[in-house]
Structures are given as C-alpha cells and as structure tokens.
Amino acid sequence: MSRAARPEDVDEICAGLPETWFGTSWGDVPTWLVHHRYRDGERQGRGFVLYRKPHKTAVDPRTGDLYDDLLVIRTPSEADKVELVESGGPYFTIPHFNGYNAVLVQLSRLGEVGRDELVEVITDAWRACAPKSLVKEHLGAR
Predict the structure, then answer these.
(1) Gap between the Cα atoms of 26 and 15, Å rounded
(2) What pTM value is reported for the model?
(3) Residue 105: which domain range?
C-alpha cells in the first residue's frame, strides 16, 4: 500500500499528466486543465480537477459551515462517481452536482486514501476530459 495522500500531491499528479496546465475556469476558479483543442489560435482546455471556493451549496452537515477546502474531481461516468461515493472513503457529492460526473473531496481528508489511489482517481479524471488520441498515446488502449 502506498503512503497516505497529501494535499500537495494533487498538483504534483496533475502536472505530471500530458498537456495539462494550472489555470482557471468558471471565471476565476483555480483549475487543472487538459488541452482539448485550439480555437482562434488559442489553446482551449477542459477542467478535470477544480479547487472549489466555499459556496452555500456545500455545507458541512456536522457544523453547518461552508466547506473551504474542496476539490472537484471529474469522473469518467456516473457509475464511477457512485462507486467512489459508496466506497466508504472521503469522496462525496452534493445535490448541486446531480447529473454531473464528478466527486468532491476535502483536502483535509486526502490522507484517508493512499497516494496510488489518488493517482488513479486523478488520472481517470484526466482521461475523461482529454482527447481520445492523447489518452491512447499516454495510456494505450483502454
């Protein structure tokens, strides 16, 4: 089993995937993006890991406080999302994400999973957003 995941692993894992960069989405949300296409000569990306700002749609049920350390991680499918949420680990969802293939996890709870699992979850998120040709080049037929 790998060591416990740490918050700093997120950026390291994302940066290690092909054609990624740290930017913003939804205006000013810090986001890891993967190159998807060029539009008008500008590189366009799809977000696969977002650092979500506190929002009234995500409240800690124990304290009533807004979560202030949430990651949104894309999932390849609804089934993958459900599997992560039901795994008994730190992954969860909120009604705001109904119909959207993504899970949430608090940075403060990343230590509940191993780094290897975090690599797998983030790589799957990247795979869900990257062009098929890039996925095939990086991961082979899958």
Answers:
(1) 20
(2) 0.92
(3) 7-137
